[in-house]
Every structure is written in structure tokens, then in C-alpha cells.
Amino acid sequence: MKRLLTSTSPLLLTFVALASAAVACTVTTSSTPDGSSSSSSSSSSSGSSGDGDGGSSSGSSGGEADAKIGTISMTQTSFTAGPTTIDSYSLIASFATGGTAVGSGGEGTKCNTAKDGDCTVTDCDLSPTDAGSSSGGVSDAGTPKQKHAGDITVAADLDVTMTPDDNGSYPYKTGQVKLFGSEQEIAVDAKGADIPAFSTTLKAPTFVTLTEPAWPAPGQPLAVNRANALAFKWDAGTSGDVMVSLSTVSSTKLASVSCTWKASAGQGSIGAAALGKLTTDGQGSIAVNASSTSTVTAGDWKVNVSALSPAKAGSSLASGQITVQ
């Protein structure tokens, strides 16, 4: 599997792990009739916050092999320890074509993705494959040079620029300062290179506090019963969405459930059918984020930009481990 990126925030680690798994998968998509995807194409920039998609997009069937997708994700974490407020941010950017992850160099893990109401359920087979059956084999010639968009600058409380390395990949960027605040406008500008120059703006989500389910003590896992729906409630916001992601991974299977609701709704629920895809063995994690998204078209590339902030749960962040029954 694609290597995971580390972070000072356990929530961000979960998010990046899910994003990596989703990008690295060769996905077969099946959707219920209400799972239609919206396609927005604007030649210069198209900003939208809280569109209910949670930053997830799927190319129309028949065009997946030629899909050119970029992702720019920024996360702002703020929490209080005694009288002190601790801020930190992280930035990540990647560009991929045809369902192959940036830097993966291979066909990727085989996954199936399906819609279940407001949720997307992904089931990936991690069983070992016959290395000899792969057409052409896997090259050991090193990481191939990646397409990139030149310097990418994110501007809000401060300006932060990501610069691609010699292979065209964007190094993971973090800082122990505040990048953006609740409902603040954020500007994203790419100078352009292999991917044409583009710019967009989005409004940061309302930072929210989770009130249900009851959150466990720090260091303790949240118990998830697959036989029952899992309800969430939060202080209602006015901007963006609330996104809940659960994942489990064993030696043979990775499963994830990602659900998105309008922040203004104040509540959402994950049904037993979606939870039933999670495994009871191996390790599990949960992350609850406030999120806003914007989509911009740059030439024949579709770039999804997201701003995330971990939800709070009592005195801690609403992220951590889960046990699944």
C-alpha cells in the first residue's frame, strides 16, 4: 500500500490514510439511484463551500482511465490545554491520472465503492497478488516523475507555499501556527507547470463541537456496534459540512465509511448496512471533521480543494481508535 504520511494530529493521520487508500485504489463504482454525481466545470475557478460532497468526486463511467484529478487538502487544528490555545496546520497536494496514485508506480489495490445514502463505503482487498500475473511487472527503476502545477500558495491568516520536489511530488507541509480560522476566506493559487495555472477561493467551515455520541476518555477507543445505526450530533454551524470517516484494516481487507452532512443540519446518522462493511479484526479509527470544498478546472485537470478542521469532543478532538462489534 501507499506509505502513510505522519502528522502531529491523529485525526490528520486518519484522513491522510483514507485519502491515500482511496486514491491508490483501482475503483469499481456502484451507486444507488440517489448517488448521482455532480460535475462542475469552470474554466478559471469555481468556488463552493459546503456542497455536500465532502470533497469526493467520481469521473463518469467510461472516462476513469483518462481521469486527471488533483487534490489539495489543508487542515487546521486548534485546541485548548489549560490557558493555552495550541494551533497547528498541515498541507498536502497530489495529482494523479487514471486511478493510479502519485508515486505508487503500480496498479494499486483493488477496491469497490458504493453509495449508501449520505455515505460512501469503500471495500479494498489487500490479499497478496501473484506478482507473475501482472502484465509488464512492476518497475524498480525508481519513482517516476509526477505531473505538477508548480508552486501552490494557500493564503488566509498567513501565506504558505508548497513547492514540488525534483520528482514533481509535493512534500507534506506542517506548522505550529494558525493558517485559517472558522468561516474565514481562503485563497489558493497555483503558478502552473505540467498542470495549467489555476486559482480558487473557499470559505473555511464552521468549527464544530460534537455532542453525540458520548466520547470516550483520552486514549480509549469508541465502541461501534455494526448492528445499530450510529448517530452524531454537533453544535450547528453555518458554513460547510461535517464529515465522519471510519475505517478498519486487517491483513486482507481495508474498509472505510465516509459520510457527509450539512453543518447547519446539526446531526447525521450512519446506518447498520454501511457499518456492516467494517471488519471486527485488525485496527480501526474514526475522524470527525468540519469541511469545505471547492472544485476548479485547469485545462483537462479537475482539482478538488478542501479545508478541514477536526471537530472537538469535550476537551479533546473527535478522532481516535474504534473497536467494532
Characterise this structure:
The structure is a single chain. This protein is mainly beta and 325 residues long. It has one domain. It contains two helices and 21 strands. The strands form four sheets. Strands 1, 2, 3, 4, 5, 8, 12, 14, 15, 17, 18 and 21 form a twelve-stranded mixed sheet that branches. Strands 7-6-9-10 form a four-stranded antiparallel sheet, with no helix packed on it. A three-stranded antiparallel sheet has the order 11-13-16. It is globular and about 50 Å long. The two termini are 26 Å apart.
How would you summarize this macromolecular structure in one to three sentences?
This protein has 325 residues and is mostly beta strands. It has helices at 10-24, 272-275; strands spanning 25-30, 68-81, 84-97, 109-116, 119-125, 152-155, 159-162, 173-175, 185-190, 198-203, 210-212, 222-224, 230-234, 241-249, 253-262, 267-270, 283-298, 301-310, 312-313, 316-317, 319-324.
List the helices and strands and how they pair.
Layout: H1 10-24, E1 25-30, E2 68-81, E3 84-97, E4 109-116, E5 119-125, E6 152-155, E7 159-162, E8 173-175, E9 185-190, E10 198-203, E11 210-212, E12 222-224, E13 230-234, E14 241-249, E15 253-262, E16 267-270, H2 272-275, E17 283-298, E18 301-310, E19 312-313, E20 316-317, E21 319-324
Parallel strand pairs: 1-4, 2-18, 12-21
Antiparallel strand pairs: 2-3, 3-8, 4-5, 5-15, 6-7, 6-9, 9-10, 11-13, 13-16, 14-15, 14-17, 17-18, 17-21, 19-20
